[in-house]
Amino acid sequence: MFKAPPSQLSDLEADELSRFALTLAQAAAGVTLPHFRNGTKIDNKLADGAFDPVTAADRDAETVIRRAVKDAYPDHGIFGEEHGKEEGTSPLTWVIDPIDGTRSFISGVPLWGTLIALNDGTYPRVGLMSQPYLDEIYLGTGSAARLIRHGRESVLRTRPCDGLEHAILGATDPAIFFGAGEHDAFEALSAKARLRRFGGDCYFYCLLAAGQIDLVVEAALNPYDIQALIPVIEGAGGIITTWAGGDPQEGGQIVAAGDKRTHEQALSILAKAAR
């Protein structure tokens, strides 16, 4: 089973960078909120009938974040969904998805979020999900996680779940399971769960950290889709790996659980389609 490498950041550095990540989230909210439920123009990144939406809110929010990072930490690298990768002279890299859940965003569903992670060169050490419409920020450092809601802070902890038969399972969309054997593996797993829900995007991972659901299973993720959520899940006491039980930071097939027992049971089913 995967075990995260030791952090390259001191506690003092992690605290400083966490505070800075909060300022980035605030700057991004100033861009995204005016567009939400306001008829923003939608572009399609794909052709041939496929649909991968992007809006000015996605692009401009990432631009604001990147500018703030370069002003404060010019040696840091940046990797974002909309504007690509910019190497730094430091091993530290900010990994950004300005709007995770653009389909939710353009549909008026408040389950999208801004994802911001700080990777120390070996693993994401600081991560947050900001949902500004709900005024919620889920912030983690791997060793602790907290929710900031309406200016008030509370500790995030996953809940115990001793088996799949008691688990609430979340996934963004069944259509993401298009790899060989993935759909069958997901169906076999979800058939054992008490309840499954779709459409949560990044918000499902935060609900897991908050002890509201027990399991999130996804596939075809990019690094910027998941790195910010790793410190939140782990800081709340949860477990997040690939379907093969490996390092989750590059994305792909991901399973997150609040309880080790549920995670182990999920892996035993998903391993059939693990890559």
UniProtKB/TrEMBL annotation:
Superkingdom per UniProt: Bacteria
Q: Does the keyword Hydrolase apply?
A: yes
Which residues of this UniProt protein bind Mg(2+)? E81, D97, I99, D100, D225
Q: Which CDD domains does UniProt cross-reference here?
A: Bacterial_IMPase_like_1 (cd01641)
The broad enzyme category this protein falls into is: hydrolase
Tell me what reaction this enzyme catalyses. Answer: L-histidinol phosphate + H2O = L-histidinol + phosphate
Q: What is its EC number?
A: 3.1.3.15
Cofactor(s) for this UniProt protein:
Mg(2+)
Q: Which pathway, metabolic or otherwise, does it act in?
A: Amino-acid biosynthesis; L-histidine biosynthesis; L-histidine from 5-phospho-alpha-D-ribose 1-diphosphate: step 8/9
What does the record list as GO biological process? inositol metabolic process; L-histidine biosynthetic process; signal transduction
The reply to whether Flavoprotein figures as a keyword in the UniProt entry is no
What are the alphabetically sorted keywords of the record? Amino-acid biosynthesis, Histidine biosynthesis, Hydrolase, Magnesium, Metal-binding
Task: Give an example GO molecular function.
Answer: histidinol-phosphatase activity
Which family is this protein grouped under? Belongs to the inositol monophosphatase superfamily.
Name of this chain's protein? Histidinol-phosphatase
